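Quick start: what a row looks like.
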Amino acid sequence: DLSIQIPRSSSSVQGCLDNFIAAEKMEKCGYKCSKCKAVDRMDKAITIFRFPKILVIHLKRFSRREKITSSISIPQKLDMTPYAPYSSKYYLFIY
């Protein structure tokens, strides 16, 4: 299962997945450099390492108790290679 948020600017599953894997700036997260012991700023990024036989994508329709009512387009065939750069080439067929 993959739970992804629906950003307000997106109208497609690809846009939701792009938002999911986008790098997040982590400031004052408590991570300290092993050499100088100073608190570092870092980027955190999430990708899919290996695809399962069945992938369920859950679209989070609520944001802070507010329902997101925008329409999301779902294609019949979805290229998942941008979301799993270290995996084999896969296409997801939606039924």
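That is the whole record. The chain has a mean pLDDT of 79. The first strand starts at residue 2 and ends at 5.
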